[in-house]
Amino acid sequence: MTAAPAYHPSQAGRPDPAGAPRRRRRPAALTIAAALLLTGCSDAGGDQLQVVENPERAAAASSPATTEKPTGRVVPADGDVTAVAAADGTLAAALTGQDAVQLYDLGRLGAEPRTVSLPGEVTSLRAIDGDIVATMPDAGAFARIDAAVAEADVVELDGAPTGVAAHGDRTLVALRDAKAVQVLDADDRPLRTIRGELYSADDVLVGDGDALVLDRLRTAAFSVDVTDATIGEGLRAGQGAAQATTDEYGRVLVTDARNGALLAFDTEPLLLRQRHPVDGGAYGIAYDSRRHLAWVTLTERNEVVGYDVRGGQPEEKFRLPTVRQPDSVTVDERTSQVVIGSAAGEGIQVITP
Fold first, then answer.
1. What is the pTM of this model?
2. Of the four listed, 12, 107, 162, 317, which is most buried by Cβ atoms within 10 Å?
3. Which CATH topology does 157-277 take?
4. Residue 85, burial from CB neighbour count under 10 angstroms (0-12, 13-18, 19+)
5. Segments in the chain below pLDDT 50
């Protein structure tokens, strides 16, 4: 299976760092060709996007004991870190078994973290419009956390949310077990629930105004038409889609934990633009729009790699040792600090590259 031709993001109608955004339109045949290219790699028969007969979500590869001192500073954490997100100089960290989020001041790492109690254990964190958004699937809720005052606004749902994204003045929520994306209005009232040929809805992301849902069981990405309330075309997202984020070109970046790769998708039309090999157990991913760097954690090597993604293929700029089991990573857009959470009890690593 081969990747789509190399390109510069501006070729797809994206703004270059100094240019103005332009809406892009591509021939439908290009999308169909890309879909055939990917689905033709299936060995599951009837379902062209299913990788194996009994699919399971990809997990992070196990890490060995660390052999190098982690770059930067390591702050102790009271448990295994499952998710991290940063906004405006504040780091939020979720820990296994805790119905809470810990807030750290990235400018005063020696200070005690503040605790925000929540109705359930947090499985994902994301910075959205200055807030930290935490999903709690077992509690059937997500929360918007105001880091300035350490308070949470909890939104209860009829389902298990595993991902949240902003879509204009509306909010999109991936409901894993319902295999759907729910649309909420500006007051967090349900407007509609979008269903399609999903095995699970594990995350939802918005690139350049267009939505994409990540199905980790099927290891595939699907376009979401919020206006028409439909799940559209789907493309294979490697052999083990793991974590995802967006870049300033409107692309969705996905790690392939089984095949070891960094994937870049356009969202309208849905198209795989890049597939870059990443050895060493690629898993966590975060993006720094100020420096155009995608940071990918390698759990088999206890490393994090920074890739410049402005060109036709990602170009490695940094490779740094990390804490053990670096399953989660985030970037503070204000300072470009890279923060990595250890899922093996070794704390939180803060790097200023």
1. 0.86
2. 162
3. Neuraminidase (2.120.10)
4. buried
5. 1-45
